[in-house]
Amino acid sequence: MNIYPTDHLKLDRESKERQLNQHSKVIWMTGLSGAGKTTLSYSLEATLHKMGYFVQTLDGDNVRTGINKNLGFSEADRYENIRRIAEVSKLFVSCGVITIASFISPTNEIREMAKSIIGSEDFIEIFVNAPLEVCESRDTKGLYRKARKGELKEFTGIDAPYDTPLHPAIVIRTDLLSIEASTNKMIEFLLPLIRRD
Length: 197
Prior knowledge:
Blueprint lengths: L12 H8 L5 E5 L6 H14 L4 E5 H4 L11 H20 L3 E5 L5 H11 L4 E7 L2 H6 L5 H6 L21 E4 L5 H16 L3
Parallel strand pairs: 1-3, 1-4, 2-3, 4-5
Helix pairs in contact: 2-8, 4-5
């Protein structure tokens, strides 16, 4: 059996972006548990969808129940979780899809790893920022309470560190801005980057 090169058969990213009439990017939302990442990611996705953009959101709920369901919460597993998410995000971007990745991704090192996989020109870091006490007050799953009691070990913000992003593209203070105002701030920043003229 003869195997022939197929590179000439592949559709390039530009062709896919042109069909979708957008520039694909990865919008990487980082912040403490309870900061508002998931809420804002779905608000941003819905707003961009209404504007005619093709968007996919990745977050813990739809990743840890599928592609990463074999991973726990050890340091090595958390690293692998983000590595896989970055690889999936890179695939989406190559298909022309605007991808919103909403993960704590607590250290600068782990976010740099994600950026190196995706590519710095396609990686837009958004720091979803709220004080720890605000995040704890929004703790619908009771995770902070368990961490404070010592029932949940290595919980980010309590007994595991969270590195404040060094150079985020934008910072969203969810203790100061409403969901609508936060979404509008992100849209204003993102439109020049994703819009095809």
